[in-house]
Design goal:
By secondary structure, this protein is α+β, with helices and mostly antiparallel strands. It is built from 7 helices and 19 strands. Strands 2-7-5-6-3-4 form a 6-stranded mixed β-sheet.
Length: 362
């Protein structure tokens, strides 16, 4: 049985230091190497200042103390700390260990939270020998690897659905032989009409949920972010459902859910909408439409009435049904993968503290 010892974090590392400042003009949406700052990935650039395996700690910003494992070439800014294990320890293990320490609690009490690399390097942590570290990291990373595989598959499935939508209702490839006519939205096949999204579906404002009502349960509460804000034991809309976040930094963010949800601070389509997949593909392809519909300066908002006014191609009911029958299995698979990921993440999060404390013996 491996003995766990109390040691200072810096004694486990060959490197524990921040990166180097980079000008925002050098960061792009696409590029060769990811750029990591205080809140995680900022974008991409064409240069790198790190290569190998490291645990990256965000030391500044709203998500101060966030931890992620990275392998490869990247650029680390001055707001990101690289933690690299020495030859007697495992970097991946250290990444999982650091994620259990809630490092954000050590940030300064100022308007801009910050962490000191020197302070963190002096923290005392409990670790086993290298072999045990590698076994623990192997168990946890196998779960993360499956989650990542499902995420990549979901991206491909989403791309396939969007490619079909573009082929049919943007490029009109299956209808090239049809006569076209001029409309308010341009030349479209004569068998199509022009209209607004409100002709195809009805968005409704979700019902607010007070923090005191957010109790443990299985129903995700969709309040505007990319992840559930919390969980509840009651759903107010049945799957499948499309949600559009109604306010905040993510106003206009569109998601499709294959599980029942509580739609809170967002607009949503009733699950009995006949054109749900068509409406989702239209909205998710047009983030600028949603962005331009936002009102409010300090707190952006998207209103259902604005979404209803989006101009859209109106195919026949038969064509929409044919399209939805093709893409529905793609979205069903995406939903199944998300459910599996939730299960895997829950298992990982349950095992993580117990493995890191030595409660579960390897």
């Amino acid at each position: 049985m491996s003995e766990w010892k109390d040691v200072q974090l810096k004694t486990l590392c060959s490197r524990f230091s921040s990166g180097i400042n980079i000008n925002s003009s050098q960061i792009f949406q696409c590029g060769d190497y990811p750029v990591f700052g205080g809140n995680g990935k900022r974008g991409y650039c064409n240069i790198y200042n790190f290569e190998g395996e490291c645990s990256i700690i965000g030391r500044q910003g709203a998500f101060c103390g966030n931890v992620r494992f990275y392998k490869g070439k990247c650029y680390l800014t001055e707001h990101a700390i690289a933690c690299v294990a020495n030859q007697n320890n495992d970097t991946h293990f250290l990444s999982y260990l650091l994620s259990t320490l809630k490092l954000g609690r050590f940030s300064g009490q100022s308007a801009q939270p910050g962490l000191s690399a020197k302070f963190l390097s002096n923290l005392v942590v409990k670790v086993p020998d290298l072999f045990t570290q590698q076994e623990i990291a192997g168990i946890l990373s196998s779960l993360d690897a499956k989650i990542e595989t499902n995420n990549k598959l979901n991206e491909k499935l989403e791309e396939m659905a969007q490619a079909i939508f573009k082929s049919w209702f943007v490029d009109f490839e299956p209808f090239k032989d049809q006569p076209f006519h001029e409309t308010e939205i341009g030349y479209i096949p004569q068998i199509f009409e022009s209209g607004v999204l409100g002709d195809l579906c009805t968005f409704k404002r979700g019902k607010g949920l007070l923090s005191k009502d957010a109790i443990p349960g299985d129903v995700p509460v969709i309040a505007g972010g990319m992840k559930p804000a919390c969980y509840h034991n009651v759903a107010n809309t049945k799957a499948p459902v499309v949600t559009v976040s109604g306010s905040g930094a993510n106003a206009g963010y569109t998601q499709i859910h294959n599980v029942d949800v509580w739609a809170s601070d967002c607009s949503f389509i009733d699950s009995n909408c006949e054109n749900l997949y068509y409406a989702y593909c239209f909205l998710s392809r047009r983030p600028k439409l949603l962005k331009h519909s936002q009102t409010g300066a300090a707190q952006p908002h998207v209103k259902p009435a604005d979404i209803h006014r989006f101009q859209v191609v109106i195919p026949s009911k038969e064509i929409i049904n044919e399209f939805q029958q093709i893409v529905k299995p793609l979205f069903d698979r995406i939903g199944m993968n998300k459910i599996e990921n939730d299960r895997l993440a829950s298992l990982r999060d349950t095992l993580l503290p117990r493995l890191m404390s030595g409660e579960i013996k390897i």
